[in-house]
Design a protein that fits this description.
With 398 residues, this protein is α/β, with parallel strands linked by helices. It has 2 domains: 214 residues, no CATH class; 149 residues, 3-Layer(aba) Sandwich (Oxidized Rhodanese, domain 1). Helices cover 61% and strands 7% of the residues. It has 17 helices and 7 strands. The strands form 2 sheets. The chain has a 5-stranded parallel sheet with strand order 3-7-6-4-5. Strand 6, helix 15 and strand 7 form a beta-alpha-beta unit. Helix 11 packs across helix 15 and helix 12 packs across helix 17. The termini are close together.
């Protein structure tokens, strides 16, 4: 298993958690009879398919849970680490493990389970596994070529088959229940069992199958978190009057000069447009990247006020609305576009001799604000970069 919460729970404490989880897993295996070689190898001789049923059920349950939590937005599927595939080593290693399973009656996990309750065959299997690990480690240069051959990287079967996750979920669930039914028939035939399942157990099986497909149907028809967010944002965009949260460039310039440490100037344009020109102290969060986890600390906080701007008012308003649904920060929209702000403060044109007092005052204010912003940017250029929260994938696996 991998670390539970990277960067929060230390590696050392993760080992303690892994130890406790491992003890619980081993206890469950032993209680289910998986320390018995007779039960384990029954899979290969056809008289007991408990192993297949248990692990297939665990896999189906985990798959449906992951799909459901991903659809609800509770689990970010992009952060799940997928073990890379090395085809030849997987095939050769799988064949060796399968052969050892048939001969010895254990897989590595169940052998430890059997050894923990003092079974000599389990102890012998664990000792043999240790010898195998040492032999592989010492002979790695000899095995390296085939070990690293056909490196496919992180492979998802549904992508290889060209189907969506939910379609693959339906397919795998159907295969599992068909396998359960057929293996039941094989067990009865091999064991010469003429008995029939009690009605209560049949009802429980049918209910479990129905519930699994019901959850999959819910996942299939339920819009994901981002679709729901997009829909709510579009509805709000069509019906909301945002004039109360719009601020003119002069007010924003005042905030930058006097309260730069309490403001986030957020540019929702593309990185290319941001690089060409951006407002002082601006942070580039492209509109289509606002849902990325790394921006959560900026969009969902109560210590600073966020000001959104773009090249056009429509995009700035959409950025504002999306931020409203993503976090709890106090948000505002700059009325002017980025180019308008640039013209007002960087390309100032002196008023002519007939200018009114108000026009002269505005010119003087903007000239001073432009100078102050330039001084501030120069003085704080090394301390105003936003702190990017790096996302880490949990590495591990069975």
């Amino acid at each position: 298993m991998g670390p539970l919460v990277p960067n929060i729970i230390s590696n050392e404490f993760n080992l303690i958690v892994a130890l406790i989880a491992g003890i619980g897993f081993g206890f469950t295996l032993e209680q289910a009879g998986f320390s018995s070689t007779k039960k384990l190898v029954g899979l290969f001789y056809g008289y007991d398919f408990t192993v297949l049923k248990v692990f297939f059920t665990a896999g189906i349950t985990a798959m449906i849970g992951v799909l459901l939590f991903g659809q609800m937005g509770i689990l970010d599927l992009c952060l799940i680490y997928i073990n890379p595939t090395f085809l030849w080593s997987a095939l050769v290693g799988g064949a060796i493990m399968g052969l050892g399973f048939i001969i010895g009656g254990f897989c590595p996990g169940t052998s430890v389970c059997a050894a923990s309750i003092g079974k000599l065959d389990g102890l012998a299997f664990v000792f043999g596994s240790g010898l195998g690990v040492i032999a592989f480690a010492e002979g790695y240069p000899m095995f390296e070529k085939i070990y690293l051959a056909e490196a496919w990287g992180p492979v998802l079967i549904n992508e290889k088959l060209g189907m969506s996750k939910i379609v693959f979920g339906f397919l795998l669930t159907a295969i599992a229940f068909i396998a359960f039914f057929l293996t039941r028939l094989i067990e009865k035939r091999v064991n010469n069992d003429q008995s029939k399942l009690p009605k209560k157990r049949i009802l429980a099986y049918v209910s479990a199958v129905g519930f699994a497909f019901f959850v999959l149907i819910v996942i299939a028809v339920m819009p994901d978190r981002y679709s729901r967010l997009e829909s709510r944002m579009n509805q709000a965009f069509a019906h909301s009057d945002l004039t109360s949260v719009e601020v003119p460039a002069d007010k924003l310039a005042t905030e930058i000069v006097n309260n730069y440490y309490r403001t986030n100037i957020i540019d929702v344009r593309s990185p290319e447009a941001f690089k060409a020109y951006h407002l002082p102290f601006a942070i580039n969060i492209p509109f289509d990247k606002m849902t990325d986890r790394q921006w959560k600390t900026i969009l969902d906080q109560k210590h600073k006020t966020n000001y959104f701007y773009a090249d056009d008012q429509q995009l700035a308003r959409k950025g504002y609305l999306k931020a409203q649904f993503l976090g709890k920060a106090e948000n505002y929209i700059l009325i002017e576009s980025s180019s308008d702000f640039k013209n007002l403060f960087s390309n100032l044109t002196p008023p002519d001799s007939n200018a009114s007092k108000n026009e002269l005052n505005t010119y003087n204010f903007r000239q001073k604000a432009a100078t102050d912003m330039k001084i501030l940017v120069e003085a704080l250029k090394n301390s105003t970069e936003p702190v990017i929260v790096k996302t880490s994938k949990i590495k591990g696996g069975c």
